[in-house]
Amino acid sequence: MSSIKEVAKHAGISSASVSIYLNDKSTNRVSAETKIRIEQAIKDLNYYKNVFASSLSTQKSKLIGIIIPTILPLFSNDYTNTLLSGIQTRLSSFGYGLLFFPSSAQSSIEIVKEQLENSAGCDGYILFSTGFCTMKQILKNIGELKKTQRPFVTLNIPQVDNTVNQVLIRDLDISTGVRHLIEKGHNNILLLLGRAGGEHAYFLKKDFQQTMERNKLDYSDKKILYGNYSAETAYSVVKSAILNFPDTTAICCMSDIMASSALQAVFDLGKSVPEDISIIGRNNSLYSRLSNPELSTIDLHMHQAGLSSANLLLDTLSGNTGIQKILLSGTLIERNSVKTLNRESNHDS
Amino acid sequence: MSSIKEVAKHAGISSASVSIYLNDKSTNRVSAETKIRIEQAIKDLNYYKNVFASSLSTQKSKLIGIIIPTILPLFSNDYTNTLLSGIQTRLSSFGYGLLFFPSSAQSSIEIVKEQLENSAGCDGYILFSTGFCTMKQILKNIGELKKTQRPFVTLNIPQVDNTVNQVLIRDLDISTGVRHLIEKGHNNILLLLGRAGGEHAYFLKKDFQQTMERNKLDYSDKKILYGNYSAETAYSVVKSAILNFPDTTAICCMSDIMASSALQAVFDLGKSVPEDISIIGRNNSLYSRLSNPELSTIDLHMHQAGLSSANLLLDTLSGNTGIQKILLSGTLIERNSVKTLNRESNHDS
DNA sequence: ATAAATATGTTAAGCGTTTAATTAAAATAA
DNA sequence: TTATTTTAATTAAACGCTTAACATATTTAT
Question: Which of A161, A306, B8, B99 sits between 20 and 30 A of A88, alpha carbons compared?
Answer without folding.
Answer: A161
